[in-house]
């Protein structure tokens, strides 16, 4: 296994242009250093006055700080192009740089020109007109200001495609895993690049198998969205959000953001975002449906819990809740009225009054407008606007009049809206067959299903709690009553862009709410229907998501890059038993055969000696980041402790509070999902642990077996699972 690029010693490349490229690299580094020195010299940042000089110096300092990290690795590729009969070479890097005094400029990877480096297209039309032709694409491996290797990807004079792109990709894939997600700016493949740069302002659903680079592409798309070239579709990093299934994965993935220049993006989980928006940070979120699926062997009860959870996340529930709130607020308005005397300058006091009928009409208009800020705020503003209009209030007296009306309007809102809180209202709705029936959207069988409690045998916390399957309903109540979106001080605004990782595990109802909370068209969903471990919360198909996100496009990644051919083929064998997505193709990267460790069913120490041996074998093969994957968190806890008696010390990751810092870890499949390791060991890989007859269990096995980049081991006391034997 080769070392990471930053650790490789300089090599003398035999490429004929190695020396000239080395000279150009030195020139670029020198030009960058000169520019940084200029920016950091405050005496040169002089304006017309002291205040202007300070502003100019601060801006120059920011520019210097942004460029400095890229001096050691100014670019990674080049394009030789011909435009209008003139040839020039463009260098592509992670950060754009303009050499005002020489030929050492760098084009940013996220620019339109930068896109040409990744595509297979040989021509394009520059913005200034004319026709451009690609003559050569070249990869340049650089670290610590030193050129290590020159690889031509395409050369018109040498006959076209050289096979270099695949060569570079395989070199990168041979590298070991890290304790955080890595950017793929240097090795984006054409299909990944196309998905990443899909039309800004269009909702995108990216379907791809394990290892196809979905999550990485989502982060890179977010960085691409922040480029000024996106124009009116440009996103501000601080106004974007990424939702990931758990905090372990969120921490693992977020480390890539500063490298992409978008460190201000908020990376969180759906549960954390939801309870923050609800203002219930102390509320404990459980997922009792998942607990039942992992622990209960009664398939009838499991199926009932699955169906009920799916119904709770059905997109129709949005209108069920809307109808319920309309009935509640209309009932609360009966007999209400507003009457207040208002003092105006140099005029007789005037009375502002609204009858029961007029208040009902205002509520109807607010529901029709469906404001982002919610019905309560919308109702208040409508009443205030009507008062200012009816009383003919001058602009300079508006603030005074609104102050006088504040108390009576607040009292009215309290009588109508105050008793409607997201948690209690969602549960009140579920507990009332009459309320569920009023929308006319649910069948009697569905209403009866919502009234069942298949989770009654699963313990609940003693403190205030909500189940993950209930949260979208509570969010819907919040969206209609108090608003939904990004909190900016006291203001609520739409997110500039939202990325959903593991998108197959988000309910259609949650998609509808996120579409409401985000600028139109600015949602990117990354998922794999084959990995739907939490399918009871997710859509049955991407068409269900498209139904609530108008104009959404589904893009399919047809290649997986993570694992060796041997590991990819094993995963494909498992997925083929329930595969609903397009067939995927692995990179032709040969590796070690999948290792299988078994012992008799009556082995005195069970599978512990086998796992310990597998760890030693993986370490002997040169692997450092190794995962032992269990089916449940309780299994991981017990295994981590028991392995110490076998001279094996593994860090347990059993809750979302734990962090993956590299090395040997033991963790359940629910927390391993989304992570990748140089080597992985699947414990208890047998039909007793992963029920062969249940699709959900086969999904778990697929996720467990697809975590490894280079080396995979399957361990079992007794026979291995038929799908992996």
From TrEMBL:
Keywords assigned: ATP-binding, Helicase, Hydrolase, Nucleotide-binding
Residues that, per the record, bind ATP: 208-215
EC number: 3.6.4.12
A cellular component annotation (GO) from this entry: cytosol
Annotated UvrD-like helicase ATP-binding domain residues: 187-564
A molecular-function term among this protein's GO annotations: DNA binding
Transmembrane segments: none
GO biological process, one term: recombinational repair
PANTHER family in UniProt: DNA HELICASE IV, UVRD / RECB / PCRA DNA HELICASE FAMILY MEMBER
Stated name of the protein: DNA helicase-2/ATP-dependent DNA helicase PcrA
Species, as recorded: Deinococcus humi
